[in-house]
Amino acid sequence: MKSIYNVIKKPLFTEKGMELKERENKILLEVDTGANKLEIKSAMEEIFKVKVDKVATINERGKIKKFGRFQGRAASKKKAVITLKKGEKLDLIEGV
Length: 96
What we know:
Blueprint lengths: L3 H4 E4 L3 H10 L1 E6 L5 H12 L3 E9 L3 E4 L2 E4 L3 E8 L12
């Protein structure tokens, strides 16, 4: 098992993510590509001291980029949509 601090990379502050947070009490995060749902759930509960109801993951393949006559690939990512239990609240940008 990985260290819990290596599982969660960063929160994603997008329009869709903010709407999910307001309407459905869900949080959108970028996580380690090798992390599974159980590791993500335990990391969230230990780091942020909240109770997680459900974890959904999304694998995003890196896009092909062209640089003149050369081509490369952007890094692949893994996202997690975390549903908090009723009554739980998490504000990741409360200090800003």
